[in-house]
Amino acid sequence: MLPRERSNAAYNAVGETLWGFQAALVAPATVLTLLLQQNGAGKQTIGALAAIGSGLSLLPQVLSIYLFTSHRKRKRHLLLWHFFLMIPFTFLTGVLVHFSGSMSQSALRFGLIALFACFQFSMGMVVAVWLDWLAHLFRPEIRGKVVGLSWCCSALAGSGGALLAGHLIRSCPVPQIYAWLYLAAGAMQVFSVSVFWFIKDPAADEPDIPPISASKLLLRFRESLGNENFRSFLAGRSLAMIGFSITPFIAVYYTSQAGGGLSPDMVVSYGAAMAIGLAIGNLVLGWLGDRAGHRAGLLIGAGIEVITLGIMLTSAGRLSCQLAYAGAGVAGASGFVSHNSMIFETCPHDSRLAHIMVANLILGLVAVAAPSLGGAAAAAWGLRTLFAICLVFSFASLAWVILRVREPRGLAAQPAR
Questions:
Q1: Separation of alpha carbons 280 and 298, rounded Å
Q2: What is the CATH number assigned to the segment(s) 3-195+212-410?
Q3: Among 30, 89, 198, 323, which residue's beta carbon has the most beta carbons within 10 A?
């Protein structure tokens, strides 16, 4: 590893570690879900929350290519965006919860969802550019290990954040403790993003690249979608996302009598198992992907989805909850390091950013539709029926990747590295 890559990897790991800890303090799948549920939210609202989180973090990014036009100043602009147009929504959520005693439950639910949507939209505006920026910092030969290690550290810190959040919710007055969790998370977001200032961006010493025109962007979209293996990858990932669009419903299930009637603080604490699964999965799948190709990570992720859904369909109680969250973590790792690495390596042209965008736009539509339909199905037929439907899609994803998705490294060399 080159000296610049080594220092960049270290700063990236520290920044991601801090971000992972704060994210677990206010995790949408546990903390926000339970806060909404305690204020009268039903299954359809929980499904809508998942749809908002996934969709708004993916769909708006097509606008970012015209917002972050300077490659030379890209790091500075990305970090300023976080400071002024993303992190404030976390602080505002804490303030809202602090004053929640003076408003109705419906007003609080609306405010929580609106602020969450604003945060996710602001994230969606930068996610493609951030991933492209991260990819260009490291050579493909080490990228999987570097990214996997940083996300492993992030997830390990997240397990500590989840345990701390569960302890505080159990020990402190509700709802004020939720307000303090959001305010603490906002402060840690500031510290996390500050670390990335120290990353040395090689583009800062190079001439600026003119932004891609709209016509060329559409042409690159067409070239990406013309690649058969890329289309097969998108289909497999779509099936996997539908099959595991139930993450917020894990908390709903295990706090119900059918799932064991666990207390909210217990479920938040057991959510640490998801962070641990995510940590182990990111580390192992990143290392494995660099050695054997990232298609292997997709197969492992789909297989873990099947096992996790089987656990929830056949068991209840504390151990079942812990195993379900651990499985969700490993599946999530496949959706991070293996998924993004496959996008990087399937690019058939010279604009990796356009390739990332078209992938996330298509998958963003799936991410919006699947949880919304899942919430409606859960409300109409119950959680076990929803889990059974998702199990079918997870099996289909596993079979599709085995039969149709090829490892990009076995094909012609890709130009966008």
A1: 15
A2: 1.20.1250.20
A3: 30
| Residue ranges covered by each domain of the chain | 3-195+212-410
**Strand, helix or coil for residue 48:** helix
- C-alpha to C-alpha distance for 244 and 314, rounded to whole angstroms: 17
Residue 313's contacts (CB-CB under 8 Å, 6 or more residues apart) are 384, 387, 388, 391
Neighbouring CB atoms inside 10 A of 102's CB total: 7
CA 105 to each of CA 36, 40, 100, 231: distance values in angstroms, whole numbers, following the listed order? 9, 7, 8, 44
Rounded CA-CA distance 346/354 in Å is 12
Q: Which two tokens stand for residue 79?
A: 């970090």
CB 312 within 8 A of CB 324: yes
Distance between CA atoms of residues 374 and 241, nearest Å? 12
CB 318 within 8 A of CB 270: yes
Residues 56, 129: Cα–Cα separation, whole Å: 15
pLDDT string in tens for the chain (417-residue length): 788 889 999 999 999 999 999 999 999 888 999 899 999 988 888 888 888 887 888 778 777 777 888 888 899 999 999 999 999 999 999 999 999 989 999 999 999 999 999 999 999 898 888 988 888 888 878 888 888 889 889 988 988 998 899 999 989 988 899 999 999 999 999 999 999 999 999 887 777 777 778 888 899 999 999 999 999 999 999 999 999 988 889 999 999 999 999 998 899 889 889 888 988 998 899 889 888 889 999 999 999 999 999 999 999 999 999 999 999 999 999 988 899 889 989 999 988 888 988 998 899 889 888 888 888 899 899 999 999 999 999 999 999 999 999 999 866 545 454
Q: Is the peptide bond before 175 cis (omega within 30 degrees of 0)?
A: yes
Q: How far apart are CA 317 and CA 21, in angstroms?
A: 26
Residue where the block lists tokens 């932004």: 211
Residue 66's CB: how many other CB atoms inside 10 A? 11
First to last CA, the chain: 17
